[in-house]
Amino acid sequence: MPISIRSHIKGAAFHLLRGLSRRSKSSSKIYESNLNINKLVRDGDMDGACKLFEEMPMRDAVSWNTMIAAYCGRRDFNKSKSLFQQMPEKTIISWNSMISASFQSGDVDQAFQYFRQMPRRNTSSWNGMISGLVKCDRIDEAERLFLEMPLRNVISYTSLIDGFCRCGNIRRARHLFDKMKRRNSVSWAVMINGYVQNGLIEEAGSLSCQMPGENVVAATAMVAGYCREGRLEDAREIFMAMHGKDVVSWNAMMSGEKNSMVALFTVIFGPFCSMGYVNNERGQEALRLYVQMLQLGIRQDCSTLLILLMACSIISSISSGRQIHATGIKTGLNSDISVSNTCITMYSKCGSIGDSNLIFKTIQTPDLVSWNNIISAFGQHGLYEEACTMLHKLTASGFIPDNVTFLSILSACGRAGKVNDSIIWFKKMVCDYGMSPRSEHFSCLVDSLSRAGLLTRACEVIKRMPFEADGSVWSALLGACQGYLNIDLAEAVAKRLAELKPLDSGTYVMLSNIYAAVGEWAEVMKVRRLMKKQGVQKQPGHSWIELGGSVHVFLGGDTSHPDTNRIHSDLEVLHLQMTLENVEYIDLADFSKISNQN
């Protein structure tokens, strides 16, 4: 080979190797920059990630896709769209990210537009569309795409099954589930949860027995389902048999316990909660549930705190509420606005409106729920002017009041006796904001009018309602009839309530009390006989008090409290003291008769 040719080949090889070396170094720098961008995004430093991206002399598809996905994750859809449009060479991942972003922003038409413009689609593209349409409750369109898919996988089937379950078409969901050649743990969990969400707990249990291996998600769905049905023992049996419980499993069980009458008091306070009629073993079990979760090293999340704070609200235990709140501060979970919002309600229901107001002031950027909760808190404490002030501040901050806002202010009007204001706010809601009043709003308006003795006007409001009045509206009117001893109206209202809620003892008891107040004892006995004939049983009255870190609960006619004798002894002393001091009182014997009647 001539020397000149050999030299030319060597020169070309040298330049090729140098080019490859430069390209390799360039690729290495891009790869390193991509890693740093990803780390900054994970750390929440979007400004730093954006700065590094802008400074990159060369970028690859990963660089662009990382930034697009980051903006989508922060719900900054305008920036993600702008980057996508600037991207020189778009990949399938880029297109799929924009489809996902469109669904997140609720723009289904935009998602379809991206899907149609894609030069190439993969299975993930189709699945993204189906999943997005299901979440937007557009099941028919999701099914159409499913049938058009050239190649379906387990995700495709599972997404559509979830869609059928969401819209209550459980038969079609099961038919598709049975057609699947291969199922994964998510498929089983979605189908079982679909049964649970549609109230078919027995079918869910039957399917879970067919499931191969253990599935924590499916088992958690069963726990939640049994708790919703009030079958706590069945829920607890599944829960205790579960391996690898996660925080969602623990929350489901604790939420079920909270919602039961027993665990309402025991999920937090356990054995040091003196409850009288409550089974102590179950109380200890509920406490062990929470303690075991912490001992196993499972970190509580926001849902755990919300469940516990709501339990404190229900039983008005401020000391325990403060402990749970402190736990939130220690773990940093109080930074979640939902925790702060729940704390506002908890402190209000525990009687500490000052703490509620303080919590609200510490929220840097309150959302509409925050405003609604503090308005409701002031209203519950009869602080109508403060509630109004907060509502005006809400609108001044750029928020638009919703149905809950007006429900809170109308309720505040009723408690403060502001009849005219309740009418003004009601008209404002309808005329200025174009909202359609719900039954709860009418109930508040009827309650305000009734409390002021304007019973005829309250009846007119009920007659003019655009839909049939429900039990809450009629109950508000019946309560006022009891206060103003309007027997004729009370009888008519009670008759309507008995039709709506035939087994509700409250209607019969209120009517009986009205008759008793005017000395119509024959009518009282007639109501009692009717209750017996209808099989209506009055739930015994109960009350509780928090004392020295313990919650003491008392049930009418119950004597199981450990200090019953001492309590009755002190009552006798007070009774004697009132007698000696000539204080007007209700004779204890008469009080006992009244309690037995009610």
Brief description of this entry?
This protein has helices at residues 3-42, 46-55, 61-73, 77-86, 92-104, 108-117, 123-135, 139-148, 154-166, 170-179, 185-197, 201-210, 216-228, 232-241, 247-259, 263-269, 280-295, 302-315, 318-331, 337-349, 353-362, 368-380, 384-396, 403-416, 419-432, 439-451, 455-463, 471-484, 487-500, 505-517, 521-534, 564-580, 588-597; strands at 542-547, 550-555. It is an all-alpha fold and 598 residues long. A hairpin with a 2-residue loop joins β1 (542-547) and β2.
Summary tags:
about 600 residues, mainly alpha, about 0% strand, single chain, 33 helices
Task: Provide the fold topology.
Layout: H1 3-42, H2 46-55, H3 61-73, H4 77-86, H5 92-104, H6 108-117, H7 123-135, H8 139-148, H9 154-166, H10 170-179, H11 185-197, H12 201-210, H13 216-228, H14 232-241, H15 247-259, H16 263-269, H17 280-295, H18 302-315, H19 318-331, H20 337-349, H21 353-362, H22 368-380, H23 384-396, H24 403-416, H25 419-432, H26 439-451, H27 455-463, H28 471-484, H29 487-500, H30 505-517, H31 521-534, E1 542-547, E2 550-555, H32 564-580, H33 588-597
Helix pairs in contact: 1-2, 1-3, 2-3, 3-4, 3-5, 4-5, 5-6, 5-7, 6-7, 7-8, 7-9, 8-9, 9-10, 9-11, 10-11, 11-12, 11-13, 12-13, 13-14, 13-15, 14-15, 15-16, 15-17, 15-18, 16-17, 16-18, 18-19, 18-20, 19-20, 20-21, 20-22, 21-22, 22-23, 22-24, 23-24, 24-25, 24-26, 25-26, 26-27, 26-28, ...
Written account of the structure:
- The protein has helices at 3-42, 46-55, 61-73, 77-86, 92-104, 108-117, 123-135, 139-148, 154-166, 170-179, 185-197, 201-210, 216-228, 232-241, 247-259, 263-269, 280-295, 302-315, 318-331, 337-349, 353-362, 368-380, 384-396, 403-416, 419-432, 439-451, 455-463, 471-484, 487-500, 505-517, 521-534, 564-580, 588-597; strands at residues 542-547, 550-555.
- By secondary structure, it is mainly alpha-helical.
- It has a domain at 542-597.
- It has a two-stranded antiparallel sheet.
- A hairpin with a 2-residue loop joins strand 1 and strand 2 (550-555).
- The model is unreliable at 1-23, 260-287 and 585-598 (pLDDT under 50).
